[in-house]
Fold these 2 entries.
Entry 1:
Amino acid sequence: MKRPARAGADPPPHLLATPRATGWDPHPAQRPPHRHDPVQQVIAPTGHHISLVTGHDEARHALTDPVFVHDIRRLHHREHGFGGRRCPDDIFAVEGRHPLNSDGAEHQRLRNVLAPLFTRTTAAHQHHMIDGACDAVLTRMARHDTPELVAHFARPLTVHVTAQLMGIPTEDIAELTALTLAMVSGRDPELCEVRRDRIALTRLWARIIGRRRRTPRQDLLSQLIRAEENGALSRQELVSTAWGVFSGGITSTTAFLASGAVELMNSPRHQAMLRTPRQTHALIAELLRLTSPFPFAAWRFALEEVTMGGTTIPQGTPVLISLAAANRDPSAYACPDALRPEHRRHSHLAFGNGRHYCPGSHLARLVAAVALRSLFRRFPRLRPAVPLSELSRRGSLIDRCYRSVPVHLVPRH
Ligand code: HEM
């Protein structure tokens, strides 16, 4: 593949350094972008040469520019994209197309099915269920000798809420969660065990969907099944869209609850903002900017050669947009590494921008508001049980959640 001319003989840097080497901030891409280099050529963990977009304005633009396509099949030459080294249908699909790997009319059709299921009103109807789930999860967490915020709070809560919303049978939730986390763990898609997990996940979804088809309810999965029966989705799109919603819902929201809680633990002033809805809204928005639960948008591919931020991106190049870096670009946000909910003028990019903007954003904000409020109301003196510099993150591009956040709970008496 043609490479852009680079100044000097240095090879492009690697996208990820190991968490151990870089400690608290494992993503070079999470650091503010070089002022003159908002688009860079880098080497992905898979060894592929890719273009990394880190500037705020460039990221906002790239998220909507139709020259960057999601559907790898639209590239004209086989040697472009991932060069045939990944599954042709891309690792994130269980079986076929879903909103994040489709473009244009195909994407719009899939979005039209999802949009009515994710309005602000449908999210608000879940308030009671989310509240009850928070109470139950916090009560269970309080019983642990060594409580920690990922395994005992963020993940069980998020999985429960997403499974309830979708109508996943209780007996399938644990296996579905384990397989989903395995699929987004960043392993080489060509490994035997990854293929085996992929097949197991596809079979599990077939079983879950078959059961829901026989006993439909008012849940999201039943409505996706109805869309398939009406011809709005193919069978494969039903499976991959259901999986996209489940995996997108649990990975991002788990990461957000854990990192949001970490940011707030040492700041009673910001915790107090959770008491009023307007301040909560500003606080959640600023936490989303600062923590960027999905550090990167989904893979895109340059349909044509394009120059952006002074860098030429050759036709066919995989493009990764760092939402985390864009959200901390000092040209868009003063003191970008500080939590300053009262002072932000620009909206953040944590939910993306344009046609692929996260449909789960209302739900995610509501879950975060209810969960963080409940957490700090029940444990107002919650504090980390280890230095924050010792926390590490999961190692894939999609899932950068903290592995574990041990805490001391000091309940309200
Ligand atoms: C804090 C939580 C969340 C964050 C930060 C987040 C972030 C994002 C981002 C950045 C995108 C767009 C990616 C791109 O343009 O490449 C996206 C898309 C998507 N998200 Fe979320 N998300 C969150 C929660 C959720 C939830 C709770 C659900 C569903 C239960 C969900 C379902 C989806 C789906 C289906 C898409 C694909 C939309 C499309 O391509 O048209 N997300 N999300």
Entry 2:
Amino acid sequence: MFVERVTQQLRKPTASLLGWFVKKFLESNRILEATAVNVCDIQPDNVVLELGFGPGLGLQEAARRLTHPAGKLYGLDISEYMYNTASERLKAEIQAGKVTLFLGSVEHIPLGDSTLDRVYHCNCYYFWPDLRAGSREIHRVMKPGALMVTALHLEFLQKLLAAGLLKGTKWQPELYMEALSETGFIDVRMEEQKMNGKSFPAIFATATKT
Ligand SMILES: C[S@@+](CC[C@H](N)C(=O)[O-])C[C@H]1O[C@@H](n2cnc3c(N)ncnc32)[C@H](O)[C@@H]1O
């Protein structure tokens, strides 16, 4: 079925004709990615992670803000095609040691405990195999008091759902917010964010640790 193949490509784009179209479509998401980076309020010396970075537009936005030598950006994505695409796009920053990208899934983030000041992701959690395992692992790598932001294109998501795409995914924001609250995050809330005349909901969560 065509809709299932498109859903599969949104979940994990591959180097194929359909994967190429999905990549082109994702390259129109710069404002959403920029919104997530903007509301993260990234400081120049922060250590930051983007999950499910896709073609790497959000990585570019975040890397620009990390102007202090201590500032460092990590990215993790499950798709080899997206890993290669973003590695090419961020070539200079990777060579400079400012950015490091990993190929892998959210339940196994290859970083130590309490490493990160900020984590953000867009259009991504719907595809995770287990929301609680994902949010538990994000919590592990975050410093106490660190901020996690998820920006959503809810209107577009509704259109995809109406077209029969994303079947079987846990797309409802409430499900992710519930998982966050159950795995060590506080102040979990969703707020509308405006940027360049567009408006997107964003989920905020703060990591607490004892
Ligand atoms: C719909 S795309 C969104 C890409 C980009 N964030 C955007 O909004 O344009 C979903 C991305 O999440 C990645 N992804 C899906 N499941 C993942 C997982 N379990 N762990 C890490 N990345 C994942 C996919 O490979 C893909 O790049």
